[in-house]
Amino acid sequence: MFAKVKPNTQIIGQNIIYFNQVASTNEFALELIKQNLAENGTVVIAEFQSKGRGQYGKSWISEPFENLMFSIILKHVTNSAPDPFTINKIITLAMYQQLKSELPDHSIAIKWPNDILVNGKKICGILVENNFSGASLKHSVIGIGLNVNQHFEHIMHLNATSLSGLKGTETDRELLLKNILETIELIYLSSLNTGNQTICTDFDKALYGFGTKGAFDINDQIIIAEVLGCDQLGQLILEIDGKEHHYPHGSIKQYIA
Ligand code: BTN
After folding, report:
1. Rounded to an integer, what distance in angstroms lies between the CA atom of residue 80 and that of residue 93?
2. Ligand 1 pocket mutation pick from 26, 45, 63 by most atoms within 8 angstroms of CB
3. Rounded CA separation 137/74 (Å)
4. Where do the domains of the chain lie, and which CATH numbers do they carry?
5. Which of 30, 47, 69, 129 to mutate to test the pocket of ligand 1 (most atoms within 8 A of CB)?
6. Secondary structure, 3-state, 169-222
7. What percentage of the chain exceeds 90 in pLDDT?
8. Hey, how many other C-beta atoms are within 10 angstroms of the C-beta on 94?
9. Rounded to two decimals, what is the model's pTM?
10. What's the CA gap between 252 and 211, in Å, rounded?
């Protein structure tokens, strides 16, 4: 079905590998890299993953033929490779912007570092796996799982939502994929050509809790803090009692109201 997606791009999605079923699109993409067969911008997409990977070693489970599960391979020019967190920002911001245009009447935010929430529920998860040669970033595999036509209303414990759940109508996944790939490429090329200042500012402003006070679990204590943004290492910057603190990924938990 997705074989006929032809995005209007220079790099991303010019080569699309489609599977009805695969263990994990990220795993397949990493294997292509290992075998030196990876073309820059290749997209690997599957209708079903038997071993879909999520963050923190968790699995990603998604109903077949209802959602979008794909990975993008980026091959970096070694001496001008973006840092890994910039890749994360580019992709997360692109998904955020795409979802904002799909759902103009809903409240959309990035839950640091890379989940997208709509009305406080997760709609999209991103898993970036990087491949280094020494200290240089050679490839990134960006895995994206987006809930499109699956319904989550009856699975309350997941705190998940989907485009169809929010819109009340089915979404054309092919067209959505095309639009997503075009949005990602726009932001990626703008990062390569004009730098990351705007991307960083837009990313910070889209963060859940930006400019408002909210609750965090920090060292097993509930702390009220305001999100100020993200630093160059990808750490979350919080203001607590008038002071700035930086937290690495995985060290704190943000509560969703
Ligand atoms: C998360 O835990 O939020 C990240 C989920 C990432 C899931 C996507 S689905 C396509 C790609 N292939 C995988 O095995 N995982 C990612």
Report:
1. 21
2. 26
3. 10
4. 2-206 (3.30.930.10), 213-254 (2.30.30)
5. 69
6. CCCCHHHHHHHHHHHHHHHHHHHHHHCCHHHHHHHHHHECCECCEEEEEECCEE
7. 88
8. 24
9. 0.96
10. 18
Evaluate: CB of 99 within 6 angstroms of ligand 1: no
Atom of ligand 1 nearest to the CA of 49: 14
pLDDT tens-digit profile of 113-159?
Answer: 999 999 999 999 999 999 998 888 999 999 999 999 999 877 766 78
Per-residue pLDDT reduced to its tens digit, 210-245: 999 999 999 999 999 999 999 989 999 999 999 999
CA–centroid distance, 52 to ligand 1, in Å, is 6
Please, are residues 99 and 118 in contact by the beta-carbon 8 Å criterion?
yes
Q: Position 22: which residue type?
A: V
75 Cβ contact list (under 8 Å, min separation 6): 38, 39, 40, 138, 139
The pair of three-digit structure tokens given for residue 87, joined into one six-digit string: 């890749």
Residue 73 CA, ligand 1 centroid: distance in Å: 14
Residue found by looking up tokens 């999605």 in the block: 13
User: Tokens 């930006």 correspond to what residue?
Assistant: 210
Q: What is the pLDDT of residue 156?
A: 67
Q: Which of 110, 144, 184 to mutate to test the pocket of ligand 1 (most atoms within 8 A of CB)?
A: 144
Strand ranges of the sheet holding 136-146, from the earlier edge strand across to the other edge:
16-22, 43-49, 68-75, 136-146, 121-133, 115-118, 108-111
